[in-house]
Amino acid sequence: MAKQGTLLVVDDNQNILTSLQYLLSEYFDRIITLGSPVTIPSLFRQESIDVVLLDMNFSSGINSGNEGLYWLREIKRLRPQTQVVLFTAYADIDLAVTGIKEGASDFVVKPWDNAKLVRTLQEAYGKTKGKRQAAAPSEQAGGSMYWGNSQAIRPLRMLVEKVSSTDANILITGENGTGKDMLAREIHRLSSRHTKPLVTVDMGAITESLFESELFGHVKGSFTDAHADRVGRFEAADGGTLFLDEIANLPYHLQAKLLTAIQKRSFIKVGSNTPQPTDIRLICATNRDLEEMVRKGEFREDLLYRINTIHLHIPSLRERREDIVPLAKRFLAQYNTQYGRALEGFEPEALRKLLDHPWYGNIRELQHTIEKAVILSEGNELKADCLQFSAAQHQPADDTHCPSDDMPIQTLDEMECSLVKKAIDQCNGNLSQAAAQLGVTRQTLYNKMKRYGI
Questions:
Q1: Do residues 275 and 231 make contact, with C-beta atoms less than 8 angstroms apart?
Q2: How distant, in Å, are the alpha carbons of 1, 12, 17, 114 from that of 303?
Q3: Helix/strand/coil for 318
Q4: Domain-ending residue, one of 313, 335, 358
Q5: Would 141 be classed as within a structural domain?
Q6: Which of 45, 192, 274, 449 is the most exposed place for a label (fewest CB within 10 A)?
Q7: CB–CB of 110/89 below 8 Å?
Q8: What distance in Å separates the CA atoms of residue 288 and residue 292, rounded to the nearest whole number?
Q9: Which residues carry this modification: 4-aspartylphosphate (predicted)?
Q10: Structural domain of 16
Q11: Do 78 and 41 contact (CB within 8 A), yes or no?
């Protein structure tokens, strides 16, 4: 069986640590040993641990097992997905059973049987792996979160695993196409609220006149077209998660109303005078610099503090180039299934082109590129000439010079792609303003962005 997973062994007996290092190195990809549990919190901030083999007593002369139970609770608080196997003496079996009730996966009695110890730890790793697969469905599922293994993404993943189990408000930032909405869904799946609804609101798509009705709801007769009571997004998300996408597009004069609802954890429906309590976990996302907007007087500083308890920034695809090929393979599998193709992989030149491209449109652009290539490909491998990149993606955003007679003529699609990108850049990422500038609806703009991988 191939070695897999990271195991942490915590025991104050150095001989035991050495013996286990030799025994278990054949079964786990990586083994970390600690003689004291006090550095567990800092280690968890740096490493992604799958299984912990945890001794129950560390202080000399104290054999109550309470230390083990304390660190069990700390580990489950820091990283709920990590499985803990308690390492105990015969006299501590009752305490080990208590530990299982508090979240331990299993326990192993000292002196241990090698085969049983290995089997118990492998079963624990299987539970960790199963939870990850449940949290992020199969690689062929296009809507699931893909983490990757690049150095740039690891700190984000560890932070997400740590904060998802809390109710802290989270602000997600990153360029267009980096997957901010997917990260919001991943946080919800990993949270204790995962059985409750995740309600998504596109703040740029809500008209100012309907803002309060959309978010807080209204009662029948509160205005001309209010023919029945309406449930707002805050009420619909009660007990679950409310995801406010493109929070920077909320007009300044409406930000105070959102702030009030967040601060008081209650809202008032349009046409009503009765405050209604709400129990939500708030996640917001934007591709803009909110601190710069605060300095310009475009975003309320007090609202920023409220939504920014935890800040998660998704690196661009250019910063995580090691993940380009695995992502491309994932999309290849997805679109093989969707379009009934049987492409087995990429020819070497296609892989080179994927790695050389700057991917200003990030994961969304990559996904769109692979989808087109799968449709166009023939044979068993995806060929380089099927990878069609938009010329506009290679041009700097501030490139406003007029084309010369010597420049090649662009196709209509290339011209439209360039125009859409220019409008978005000029509006600083505000898609509502960009749509208005282009004379199209916001949905039409979304469709064109998807089409051109912007």
A1: no
A2: 52, 48, 50, 56
A3: helix
A4: 313
A5: no
A6: 274
A7: yes
A8: 9
A9: 55
A10: 6-135
A11: yes
At residue 439, the 3 state secondary structure works out as: coil
Q: Specify which residues 90 forms β-bridges with.
A: none
Tokens 């110890």 appear where? 117
Report how far residue 30's alpha carbon sits from residue 105's, in angstroms, rounded to the nearest whole number: 20
pLDDT digits (tens, 9 = 90+) for 34-89: 988 888 887 887 778 899 999 888 765 555 667 888 889 888 888 888 899 988 87
Q: What is the DSSP string of 92-143?
A: GHHHHHHHHHTT--EEEEESPPHHHHHHHHHHHHHHHHHHHHHHS--TT-TT
Is the domain of 277 the same as that of 190? yes
In a domain, 1, yes or no: no
Q: Do 273 and 411 belong together in one domain? A: no
State how far the Cα of 168 lies from the Cα of 280, in Å rounded to an integer.
10
Confidence (pLDDT) at 314: 95
- CATH number for the domain including 79? 3.40.50.2300
**Cα maximum dimension of the chain:** 88
Peptide bond before residue 396 is cis, with ω within 30 degrees of 0: no
pLDDT of amino acid 144: 60
- How many of the other CB atoms lie within 10 Å of CB of 390? 21
The residues that bridge with 10 in the sheet, in sequence order, are 34, 54
**Of all helices (H) and strands (E), which one includes residue 413?**
helix 412-426
Q: Are 84 and 75 in contact (CB under 8 A)?
A: yes
Q: Which residue has the tokens 């349009």?
A: 270
Single out the residue in 298, 313, 328 at which a domain terminates: 313
- Specify the 3-state DSSP secondary structure of 152: coil
Q: Which of 108-117, 133-142, 201-210, 242-251 has the highest mean pLDDT?
A: 242-251
**pLDDT tens digits for range 177-216:** 999 999 999 999 999 898 899 999 988 788 887 888 889 9
